[in-house]
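note to self: dont lose this again. the chain is below, predicted strucutre after it. 345 aa total, dont forget to put it in the shared folder this time
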Amino acid sequence: MRPLADFSLEELTELVESMGEKKYRAKQLMRHIVAYDSFDEYTDLPKTFINSLRENYIDRVLVENTRVVSSDGAVRYLFQTVGGDLIESVFLPHDYGNSVCVSCQVGCAMGCGFCASGHYGLKRNLSAGEILSQVLFIARDKRNEGGINKLVMMGSGEPLHNYYNTVKFIRLVNSEYGLNIGMRSVSLSSCGLIDGIDRLASDGISCTLSLSLHAACDDKRKKIMKIAERYTVAELVAALKRYFDKTGRRVIIEYILIGGFNDTDADAVMLKNLLKGLCCHVNLIPLNKTEYCDFSPPTKKRAYGFCEKLKSSGVSASVRRSMGSDVAGACGQLKNRTVEQKIKK
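---
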């Protein structure tokens, strides 16, 4: 059965009319969907209509399996889908508002050497409603803590590898009848699928686009990211320039700092030269060490030294504050540990 959260208001309108109900029922349904209500809470709808919905659609597509709370207030949720798959989401509180980081796939096919998300490979894409339900669950859970202001597609999976559902999710949260979160408050992180980047701009999606670059030359990038066999760093930067030209949105360069690998002065110079002419900000992320890779993070002094090297050469850059590192903070860790515990049992 299909989750109701998959439907836009226009689709809900067609649905209720096909079921013999008045058009205004669609907005009533949308309010319940956004509130992440169960069918038992649809008390303003006729019982016969609710019973028909129960027989054909799913009210809540996710249930909570596990949660862990970090000392800095971040909350990592492990959800279970109706089909039994496990996916992770994170609530991130900030002084300027609250963010939710969502997953878009069960697993990941990209196989980046530093990431736990793809440890078991890709199982399937999540539907737009399954991605949205992560936000709706957390928004309901945190409704007394200021609501959700920003969304980040940086959980498990490659958003542009699940293009249709990613774009529909963004449009659902952007809708005035949905969460009404503006495009500028939605961040999409990609390892660099150029066709998808070009399609985003053509389809009118002007969210904050982040490229997971992590190395300024092809040789190094190939050692840690399989996608580097397909696209060169020069081709990626050219795609980002096209995105900026069409949307006017500054892009973000994500650069995981790996101790002794990509954090040297020479790497800083290569990165500066690569990004010349691109309207961007470099987000430096000290590696979050996992049991699934042999890399190590740089020292704090080295990380901030790398940042200063970029800034002194005219590149906008900052070191990202890590949140949730004490609760399996890297994408995929909580799920993988849960799966492995079950295997051991």
